[in-house]
Amino acid sequence: MKKSFFGRYSSALTINNGKSKNIRDAKWYDKSVPCRSACPADTDIPGYLEAIYNEDYNKAYKINLEDNVFPGILGRVCSRPCEDACRHGEDSNGESVSICFSKRSAEHFNITDKIKLKNYAGKTKKKILIIGSGVAGLTAARELMRCGHAVEVYEKHCAPGGMLNQGIPIFRLPRSIVEKEINQAIGDDIKIYYNKNIEKSSDIELLAKKYDAVVLALGTLKPNKINKEFTKSYDVEDGLSFLLRVNEYKDKYIGKNVIVIGGGYTSMDCARTALRLGAKSVRTFYRRTNDDLIILPGELDELINENGKMIFNAQPLSVIKKDNKLTGLELIKTELVKKKGVYHLKDIKNSKFKVKTDHIILAIGQTQHLLLSKNKRNNVFAAGDFATGATTLINAIAHAKNIAKHVDKFLMKRNLFDTDIKVTNINKISRNLRLNYIPIQKMSMTNLNQRTFSREVEKGYTKTNTKKEASRCYLCHYKFEINNDLCVLCDECLLVKPIKDCIVEVSDTQEHKDGDTTYNRIKPKKSIGIYHGKLLIDHKKCVRCGECEKVCPTNAITIQKVEKQNYVKV
Which residues touch 533 (CB under 8 Å, ≥6 apart)? Predict the structure, then answer.
């Protein structure tokens, strides 16, 4: 840890201009741009939001296409870990930027039909097989093709996409978007073979001898079970099986009184689909509380708006039949009990109850359906959910990108990729204080009475909404910093600062190895230094409004653009 006192100007970064590989600078970036750090695919979020604000929609789309492969898809169904990390949602800053929706909006303006990304390397003589064409398989295929390898894909169904087609309902994800973005990802260089079902690990062993590498991107298709009583009941259906037959095979059968069990993405999709298929009532039971739901923001509200019901703290016990036909479900109420500092789910005594139903859909998770042989060959890799267990689209994409790098390194004995931090001095940025008070832009929704099985509910932003929402981004990849060697202690910056403690009076600072900077506040009559010691702009609270820089009479406040750049070694 390095200590800095008044009279010695010390930048938060190790360089003032140029490119750096210093770990401290990388750590500073990670702490300053939490949205990107939270994105599993390392998407340059402030970069594309700034491009949207500047109405450079092609640039915004290309940034997303490079980083997360499927911009239009993720702009609708991403789990949005970036928004939880967004600094605009902290304390009294307001609501997080709609990063997800903004990603989608770029597709509407000036986007060419097809964008050809540069390959990472020239053609090799290696041939790779990807098994599965969901987001993980297609991501791995695209990245390995860009590394110069010949790539083929096996798909068990008659079309690519995996859960994009078979699971996620059309009213959340139009199939025209899926088709467009899959075509964009695979181009003309990747061959997909359909109706190729791999059922045994011995099949993989044979394929591993034929190809230089095999990547398994089979997803998690084996549903979790409650007990044999549920499994053997004709009108009890697994959630993914239900969505598959409805979305892929166009089988629209639904019961009158439907019960969905589960508290995740699949349960919401099943319940809202059942309503659109004509179920008289749809009730979703979840054994835990609202806080434990793993769903998209606003999804529960829309389920309720569409006349679905959600019941918490209840889990199923047994099915009820009459003349071998499903007539009801017995459940029991639950509670979370804290024991030795850990919460445990517990059934409440004498709380059993029964509900009427003729169709139960179990959305209680799933696992890998194929176990690999213990003697797995070293040229066989696993990507996405098949490797990690069921997660999210963005996690599957990120994992597949990393696996592609591992495969290339395994085949070619090289490290193609590197990262640095680029620092550029600039005069001003496009943000101003007025932008700090723009409220979050609401998504335009299809009217309840117009919602159908195939009509998209979230209609997207207009061009005006798009720019307004993007303008809310703090652009945390800009760094405002005070050179205390030039500061004349006039307090002008303190008078205009819009956020409490974005500029602070400190006696000294501590620069840590992890790239962060902490400080000790001025203590009247006790701190070192004359008047108020020194001033510091806290990069984790600064909203990049530029007000302080505008009023500084000595140009003591500098502005730099700090970018994380992933690139291919030449």
Answer: 6, 505, 506, 507, 508, 522, 527
